[in-house]
């Protein structure tokens, strides 16, 4: 992310509107690709001061930021929230190499089974930071697995930094291996155990007597043993 260029454009918007927003969210995948979204927005009326619409003003901020140069699978659409109007850029399956850190901007690299976020938070000067007090500028990174360490706010597998008044250098380290749930394995084991128990119970249950065994032969009586009478002549 070319933060130095981003902050120059954003500072201009803040001076004109008094309020603006920049959010960046990166979701890292184990196959070294990145999904995510950028939001650029300004307060309603900012576009009119520039002789354009609010959305077009936000789109111009995105164009000037240089972020579009690193994306090859991006989609851009309108965005609004409250008094803010702007544009949201979403992207999928971007190569991790496009997000590598440089001397003047933070980025993400992979070290073995971990992703590492490192580098300067921005190139904002002290004077610029004073003018950005009413702006919201955040970056968040979601790891495939647990977060090992970070100097931002950790929420589950996601680390978020406030770039206004936040750390000068972003630092985070998290697993590049996606967590697997133990629930399917437990359920499969329970099914196997249940089937085995049912088989054992069936083998131990006494067999029911057959109809032939239940019907015992009747004892012979005197009448049944009497010889037939001779034929009448």
From TrEMBL:
Residue stretches making up the LppM domain: 21-174
Keywords: Membrane, Transmembrane, Transmembrane helix
Keyword Transmembrane in annotation: yes
Low complexity bias: start-end ranges: 208-225
Domain of life per record: Bacteria
Pfam family, one: LppM
Region of interest: Disordered: 200-233
Transmembrane segments: 182-202
Leader sequence segment: none
Protein name: LppM domain-containing protein
């Amino acid at each position: 992310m070319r933060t130095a260029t981003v902050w120059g454009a954003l500072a201009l918007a803040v001076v004109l509107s008094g309020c603006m927003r920049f959010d960046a969210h990166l979701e890292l995948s184990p196959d070294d690709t990145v999904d995510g979204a950028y939001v650029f927005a300004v307060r309603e009326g900012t576009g009119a001061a520039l002789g354009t619409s609010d959305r077009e003003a936000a789109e111009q901020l995105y164009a000037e930021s240089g972020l579009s140069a690193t994306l090859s699978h991006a989609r851009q659409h309108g965005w609004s929230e409250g008094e803010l109007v702007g544009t949201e850029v979403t992207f999928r399956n971007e190569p991790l190499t496009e997000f590598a850190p440089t001397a003047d901007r933070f980025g993400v690299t992979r070290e073995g089974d971990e992703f590492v976020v490192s580098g300067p938070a921005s190139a904002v000067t002290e004077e610029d930071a004073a003018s950005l007090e009413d702006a919201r500028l955040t970056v968040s990174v979601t790891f495939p697995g647990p977060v090992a360490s970070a100097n931002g706010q950790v929420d589950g597998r996601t680390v978020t930094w406030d770039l206004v008044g936040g750390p000068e250098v972003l630092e985070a380290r998290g697993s590049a291996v996606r967590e697997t749930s133990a629930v399917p394995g437990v359920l499969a084991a329970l099914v196997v155990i249940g089937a085995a128990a049912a088989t054992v119970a069936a083998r131990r249950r006494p067999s029911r007597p057959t109809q032939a065994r239940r019907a015992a032969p009747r004892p012979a009586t005197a009448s049944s043993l009497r010889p037939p009478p001779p034929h009448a002549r």
